[in-house]
């Protein structure tokens, strides 16, 4: 592998700029003559706009203009779109109401923009926004799923009667009913998957700069997928044709899904820039992030799992209501359907599964993909069911899982997914060992003697990543293909630029992608630059989400590298007067195998560009591109074991240990992979113990700041015992599966299973705050 | 408007700013020191931490006037030329950062923690002391490692002086 190749824990190339304060995020960018935008937002969850008076605001010092929702409609800027068409079980298309970038007539969630002030400074824009007078007629609001589907509930959109977006199903209902009919045991319960706010540390921001001479826009924005942003802004919002719109996503301070979507603010900034004839910058503050970044999760489910007399799983039946908020965000429709219900087989051989998902509008912030996106909800539901079953059936939870594990691959589940490879026993065995499972009863007894309740919980997760074969997702309703692109440019002096459609916002692509090149050519990673995040530099690409950058993005680089190497070998063979088949690449040199003849990469590159002596008919240059479309999802899987103690006097939970054993296939950079796991685990633990987006009955988000929404802090979480097992993914050339979301998918069930084990009461919802745990102890 | 003067990263600075200007905005917007970040509106996240007269302070809730005459150090001011501060090096070597947004505040906070505790730090103390800094990427595991590593590096460096 070489010291910087695949498998080496190389320190990150990009770190120097971040640790010295030289990172370049959107808000760090200034453009001469730039103005500042501040949005006027609805304080009501549901209201008619009777009038907007902007005159006083326009007269305020430093105000350039004040623009309203009606103007954006009049200018024929398109409504926001949802890019994945889902059909209800009756065959009807999902029912969606229009989502204008600023509301002209009706507001449907607190924080929805109704007007924007453009001014000479941030403070002046904020001052003037206070002077915009909006006269609202308040309407009753439906603040949660229960309220939205109740008879007589306030209706959000006339297009969606009963606030139902769709009523979707998957699986064989008849087979499931029959299996339940002959079950020896059935385990069932209802559970909520709490709503979360992604809270990337960098708030969203946008700078739009319109060049009237060229009729060209530049948008700097906090995006995980700048080309998708350009495509959507161009094709659906009528901002500008693609060749007249450059989208740049520079350093981006975390995404976790929330920066996939194209939001109203960047649309308004672009439109306003043309209107006022100057660059417009908007930088969200944290309150705006809470109110307007797409939220995550928010499911209410009923689930039943049927077993035969030997404790083998027979069938699973699930009904889930998914809260979409007030509008359908870009990929929201796919999250509780194809990213959730298709993973409900987990690691288990379940012959029949039937799931019904009802998508519901509420007067809340739109909900979309957040780290894991559907898969955490599936894992949490299934792993709590299995743990509950073990207790009900009075069998060891590890053994019940083992008994039902899928052991033969490929495995076709009853819910679309065809698992290609895995070894679930291997990861469970490794986790049991790392957690010293055998010693747990003694530790529990000792804790009891000390007045503490000790519990241990499992979570054996599987996820589907890479996302995904374009033809497959197209047949399921996706509006886009989900391949990735890459270009490899060998410069005339032999240094290399990799242009990738993937986008790094913390994942370390500048290092790991360079490691692939170093591995193949035997050159140092400092000879390789990774270029991403600029539609003017990089060919069309799909961006980063769904743990796809290694499995799909690097596979595209791999393909382009193969093409470059093939051409370089031809050139080397020609220069060395050898046969092309005898050329091997080692330590940056092209060698004639079995001889001492060689030519260094820079000389091959130079030959390609001088073109003085190339094989007959060969084009000059050394640059190739590739598009890689995955053949299947990848299936990272693993076993997590959480051991913790609960103080029965206070309900407070303290971690004893947290073991994570993951199978991500081949690891490119184990240090970075482990960092991804740590971060994911804490987001899962945050959901389990701390985080909760709470709306009151009127639709006010009462947890809209870091003072009210409990973000995990350093002293809330433990250090982790992270290790790996390895089955190489057969679906891509690198054998990689993806590691970005696993922690967030698997952790929450392990934590709750441990707490419920400790307190002896299974009736516990997330977040398991001390208050809830204390009440659960005393209700038991 | 008020005229203020202070020392920032060893250089004398004077500026005329609105009285309501926050220190973080002076640094970012007037002095172009964009390494100091704003992550929240409520003094919770610590992305904005700088040193004022050697102590870690949240610059998003400090009015410029409060720092008038003070000696300010930001993330841009802690390395000696190309030589990284031991805390910066420890964050890099232990993968103590991912997206990098919270990192300047983390590093400035961590330096202050080590100064206050000397090299006598343990994991629990570091975790408690980092209460005022939020990171969404790393899960803190490698940040804690970085701070402990830097503490011993700084102890060694101090002993050598």
Automatic annotation (TrEMBL), chain A:
Stretches assigned to the Aldehyde oxidase/xanthine dehydrogenase a/b hammerhead domain: 20-140
Protein name according to UniProt: Xanthine dehydrogenase family protein molybdopterin-binding subunit
Keywords, sorted A to Z: Molybdenum, Oxidoreductase
SMART domains the record matches: Ald_Xan_dh_C
Ranges annotated as spanning the membrane: none
Native source species: Rhodopseudomonas palustris
Organism domain of life: Bacteria
Lineage, uppermost ranks: Bacteria, Pseudomonadati, Pseudomonadota, Alphaproteobacteria, Hyphomicrobiales
Gene Ontology MF, one: oxidoreductase activity
TrEMBL record, chain B:
TM ranges: none
Protein name: (2Fe-2S)-binding protein
Limits of the 2Fe-2S ferredoxin-type domain: 2-78
InterPro entries from the UniProt entry: 2Fe-2S-bd (IPR002888), 2Fe-2S-bd_dom_sf (IPR036884), 2Fe-2S_ferredoxin-like_sf (IPR036010), 2Fe-2S_ferredoxin-type (IPR001041), Beta-grasp_dom_sf (IPR012675), Diverse_Oxidoreductases (IPR051452)
Alphabetized Gene3D superfamilies for the sequence: 3.10.20.30, [2Fe-2S]-binding domain (1.10.150.120)
GO MF entries: 2 iron, 2 sulfur cluster binding; metal ion binding; oxidoreductase activity
Keyword Oxidoreductase: yes
Keywords: 2Fe-2S, Iron, Iron-sulfur, Metal-binding, Oxidoreductase
A Pfam family assignment: Fer2_2
Protein's organism: Rhodopseudomonas palustris
Source superkingdom: Bacteria
């Amino acid at each position: 592998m070489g010291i910087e190749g695949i498998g080496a824990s190389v320190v990150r190339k990009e770190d120097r700029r971040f640790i010295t304060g030289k990172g370049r995020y959107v808000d760090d960018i200034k453009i001469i003559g730039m103005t500042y935008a501040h949005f006027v937002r609805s304080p009501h969850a549901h209201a008619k706009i009777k009038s907007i008076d902007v005159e006083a605001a326009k007269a305020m010092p430093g105000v350039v203009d004040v623009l309203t929702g009606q103007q954006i409609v009049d200018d024929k800027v398109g409504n926001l779109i949802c890019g994945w068409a889902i059909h209800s079980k009756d065959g009807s298309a999902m029912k969606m109401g229009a989502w204008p970038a600023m509301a002209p007539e009706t507001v449907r969630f607190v924080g929805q923009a109704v007007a924007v002030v453009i001014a000479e400074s941030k403070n002046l824009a904020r001052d003037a926004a206070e002077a915009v007078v909006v006269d609202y007629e308040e309407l009753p609001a439906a603040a949660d799923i229960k309220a939205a589907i109740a008879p007589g509930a306030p209706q959000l959109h006339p297009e969606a009667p009963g606030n139902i977006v769709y009523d979707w199903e998957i699986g064989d209902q008849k087979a499931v009913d029959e299996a339940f009919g002959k079950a020896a045991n059935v385990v069932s319960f209802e559970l909520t998957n709490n709503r979360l706010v992604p809270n990337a540390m960098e708030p969203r921001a946008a700078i739009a700069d319109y060049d009237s001479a060229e009729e060209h826009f530049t948008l700097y924005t906090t995006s995980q997928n700048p080309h998708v942003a350009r495509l959507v802004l161009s094709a659906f919002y009528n901002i500008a044709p693609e060749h007249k719109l450059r989208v740049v996503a520079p350093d981006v301070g975390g995404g976790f899904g929330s920066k996939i979507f194209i939001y109203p603010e960047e649309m308004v900034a672009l439109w306003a820039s043309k209107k006022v004839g100057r660059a417009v910058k908007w930088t969200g503050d944290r309150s705006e992030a809470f109110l307007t970044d797409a939220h995550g999760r928010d499911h209410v489910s009923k689930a039943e799992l049927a077993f035969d007399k030997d404790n083998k799983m027979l069938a699973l039946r699930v009904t889930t209501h998914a809260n979409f908020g007030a509008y359908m965000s870009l990929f929201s429709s796919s999250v509780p359907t194809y990213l959730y219900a298709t993973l409900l087989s987990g690691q288990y051989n379940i012959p029949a599964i039937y799931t019904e998902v009802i998508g519901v509008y509420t007067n809340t912030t739109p909900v979309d993909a957040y780290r894991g996106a559907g898969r955490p909800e599936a894992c949490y539901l299934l792993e709590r069911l299995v743990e509950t079953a073990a207790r009900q059936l009075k069998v060891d939870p590890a053994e019940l899982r083992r008994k039902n594990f899928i052991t033969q691959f490929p495995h076709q589940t009853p819910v679309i997914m065809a698992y290609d490879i895995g070894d679930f026993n291997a990861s469970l065995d490794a986790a049991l060992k790392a957690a010293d499972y055998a010693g747990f009863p003694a530790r529990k007894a000792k804790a009891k003697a000390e007045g503490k309740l000790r519990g241990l919980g499992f979570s054996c997760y599987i996820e589907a990543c890479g996302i995904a074969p374009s033809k497959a997702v197209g047949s399921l309703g996706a509006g886009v293909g989900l391949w990735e692109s890459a270009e490899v440019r060998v410069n005339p002096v032999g240094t290399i630029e990799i242009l990738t459609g993937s986008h790094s916002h913390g994942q370390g692509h500048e290092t790991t992608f360079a490691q692939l090149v170093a591995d193949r050519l035997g050159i140092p990673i400092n000879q390789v630059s990774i270029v991403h995040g600029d539609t003017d530099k990089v060919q069309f690409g799909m961006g980063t989400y769904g743990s796809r950058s290694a499995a799909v993005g690097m596979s595209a680089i791999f393909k382009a590298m193969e093409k470059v190497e093939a051409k370089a070998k031809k050139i080397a063979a020609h220069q060395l007067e050898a046969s092309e088949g005898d050329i091997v690449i080692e330590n940056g040199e092209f060698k004639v195998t079995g001889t001492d003849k060689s030519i260094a990469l820079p000389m091959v590159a130079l030959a390609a560009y001088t073109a003085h002596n190339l094989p007959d008919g060969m084009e000059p240059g050394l640059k190739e591109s590739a598009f890689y479309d995955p053949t299947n999802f990848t299936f990272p899987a693993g076993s997590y074991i959480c051991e913790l103690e609960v103080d029965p006097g206070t309900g407070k939970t303290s971690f004893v240990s947290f073991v994570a054993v993951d199978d991500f296939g081949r690891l490119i950079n184990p240090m970075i992979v482990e960092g991804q796991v740590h971060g994911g685990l804490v987001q899962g633990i945050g959901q389990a113990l701390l985080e909760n987006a709470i709306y009151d009955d009127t639709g006010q988000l009462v947890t809209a700041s870091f003072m009210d929404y409990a973000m995990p802090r350093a002293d809330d979480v433990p250090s982790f015992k992270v290790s790996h097992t390895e089955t190489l993914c057969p679906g891509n050339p690198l054998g990689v599966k993806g590691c970005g979301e696993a922690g967030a998918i698997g952790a929450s069930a392990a934590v709750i299973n441990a707490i419920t084990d400790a307190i002896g009461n299974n009736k516990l919802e997330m977040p398991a705050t001390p208050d809830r745990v204390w009440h659960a102890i005393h209700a038991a | 408007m008020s005229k203020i003067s202070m020392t920032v990263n060893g250089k004398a600075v004077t500026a005329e700013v609105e009285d309501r200007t926050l220190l973080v905005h002076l640094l970012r917007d007037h002095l172009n020191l964009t390494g100091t970040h704003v992550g929240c509106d409520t003094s919770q996240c610590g992305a904005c931490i700088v040193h004022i007269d050697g102590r870690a302070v949240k610059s998003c809730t400090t009015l410029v006037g409060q720092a008038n005459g003070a000696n300010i150090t930001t993330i841009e001011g802690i390395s000696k030329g190309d030589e990284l501060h031991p805390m910066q090096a420890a964050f890099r070597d232990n993968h103590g950062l991912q997206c990098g947004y919270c990192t300047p505040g983390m590093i400035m906070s961590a330096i202050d923690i080590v100064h206050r505790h000397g090299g006598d730090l343990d994991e629990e103390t570091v975790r408690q002391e980092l209460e005022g800094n939020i990171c969404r990427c790393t899960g803190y595991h490698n940040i804690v490692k970085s701070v402990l590593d830097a503490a011993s590096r700084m102890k060694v460096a101090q002993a050598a002086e």
